[in-house]
Design a protein that fits this description.
Blueprint (H helix, E strand, L loop, with lengths): L8 H28 L4 E5 L5 H8 L4 E6 L2 H8 L7 E3 L12 E7 L7 H14 E12 L7 H14 L3 H10 L2 H5 L4 E8 L4 E7 L2
Parallel strand pairs: 1-2, 1-4, 2-3, 4-5
Antiparallel strand pairs: 5-7, 6-7
The structure holds S-adenosylmethionine (SAM).
S-adenosylmethionine (SAM) binds next to helix 2 and strand 2.
C-alpha cells in the first residue's frame, strides 16, 4: 500500500464539517444519479471519511463499499458505523473481481495523487465495474466559465492540505488527465458546481 499520511488526525476530524456546506449539493447529485441509473452495488474508491457513502445508505442503496488508504480518514467513517463498509485498501489495486459493481465513485481523489496512480485508480474502476455500469468522477475542472474566486479557492485548499497535493493538483489540471484516461468512454453527462470550479462527470463503462 502506498505511504499516505497527508491527512493528519486533525484534518480528518474537521473534514466533513468543513465541507458540509460546499459539498452537500454534489453529494446529492451523485446519489440521485445512482438512484436513477439503478446502481445497486456501488464502490467509492478513495472514500475518505465515508461521507458520500452515508448519503447513499440513507437513500437505501443496498450494496455499498468504500476503500481508502488513510487510517485517519477511515477512522471517521468507522466511528460512524461504517467499519464493515469502508476498508483500508489501495484503490489502484483493490483485489475485487472483474465487473463486481454497478458503479464506482472517484470523488476529489484523482487530482491529489501522482498521475500514474490516478490512471491506475481510474483503470481499476473500469475493471471492477460491469460493462454498461457508471463511473462517476467528481473533481476540480476549470473552463472559461469558472469564476476567478472558484479557481482561487480550489488552489488555496490544495495549498493548505500540503504534502505533494498541490503539485499533483497543478499537474492534473494542466494536463487534463481525466480527458486522457476516459477518451474511449461515452460521457453520459457533466454537471458543474462551486462557481464552475468542480465538475461531476458520469461515464458509461465499456
Ligand atoms: C480529498 S479526499 C476525498 C475523500 C472522499 N472521496 C470525498 O469525496 O470526500 C482524498 C482521499 O483519497 C485517498 N487516497 C489517495 N490515494 C489513494 C489510494 N491510492 N487508494 C485509496 N485511497 C487513496 C486519501 O486517503 C483521501 O482520503
Amino acid at each position: 500500500m502506498p505511504a499516505h499520511n497527508h491527512y493528519s488526525r486533525f484534518l480528518a476530524s474537521v473534514y466533513d464539517t468543513a465541507l458540509l456546506f460546499p459539498i452537500g449539493k454534489i453529494r446529492k447529485s451523485v446519489r440521485d444519479i445512482l438512484i436513477n441509473e439503478g446502481g445497486e452495488s456501488v464502490i467509492d474508491l478513495c472514500c475518505g471519511t465515508g461521507n458520500q457513502i452515508r448519503y447513499l445508505q440513507k437513500a437505501g442503496i443496498p450494496n455499498l463499499l468504500g476503500v481508502d488508504v488513510s487510517a485517519n480518514m477511515l477512522q471517521q467513517a468507522w466511528r460512524r458505523g461504517l467499519k464493515d463498509i469502508c476498508l483500508q485498501k489501495d484503490a489502484s489495486q483493490t483485489g475485487f473481481e472483474d465487473d463486481a459493481f454497478d458503479a464506482a465513485i472517484m470523488s476529489f481523489c484523482l487530482h491529489e495523487t501522482q498521475a500514474i496512480t490516478a490512471e491506475k485508480i481510474f483503470n481499476e474502476a473500469r475493471r471492477i465495474v460491469r460493462p454498461g455500469g457508471r463511473l462517476i468522477v467528481v473533481d476540480y475542472s476549470f473552463d472559461q466559465h469558472t469564476h476567478p474566486l472558484g479557481r482561487f479557492a480550489a488552489r488555496a485548499v490544495e495549498k493548505m492540505v500540503g504534502g505533494g497535493h498541490y503539485q499533483n493538483f497543478i499537474h492534473f489540471m494542466a494536463h487534463d488527465l481525466l480527458a486522457g484516461f476516459s477518451k474511449d468512454l461515452e460521457l453520459q453527462q457533466c454537471q458543474r458546481f462551486l462557481m464552475g470550479a468542480v465538475a461531476m462527470w458520469v461515464f458509461i463503462n465499456k
